[in-house]
What does this fold into?
Amino acid sequence: MRKSYITLLLLISFIFTSSAKNTTNSQQARQLFDKTYNLVFGPQGSSLHYFVNIVGIYKTEGDICYKGNKSKFEEARYSSWNDGTTFYKVDKKKKTVELYDPNSLDRDKYASKFTFVPDNYTYSLSTTDTESIITINAKKGVDGIKHVKAVIDKKSGNPKSLRIKLLWFWTNIKISNFHSGNINNNVFIFPKARFKDYSFSDKR
It folds into this structure.
């Protein structure tokens, strides 16, 4: 009887110890995620180069800047400027510029699918000698992004890559030339003269 009682105590102790370790790991993962997220999307702004590979079928690369509610990205065919008041979407092949309200999901048919609310996910952390890997999983019932693996450089603290699962396919994003801070607000101003021979349509 005493032996069974001791075994039960050890088992309970093991369960609570394991739970505490998991909680600590989860908290560390979330803290690192929040820190990195703020490096990218914080009020100081950031810029980076990205290379996107969607299951080998579609590949693209470009440069993007963020600062508060402003953003800008440029790649081979598409570009956009968001000055916080108007979102300008440029199609260089069609030579068109569409104007949208920055908060409208109509500006991008994929925007709603890639909506990410941090509290809707669970977090865990693993490490190598040079990298921290945050594994992010959607809670039950969450639509859109289901899984994310974010790789962070240990030395600099900068993001290196993202692996995102949406529905049944994975999107791989490699990140380079990352800088946080010192983003001039002028980069978010749409250069109208550059596209003076384009066709403009107001979708607001």
Q: What stands out?
A: Confidence is low (pLDDT under 50) at residues 11-20.
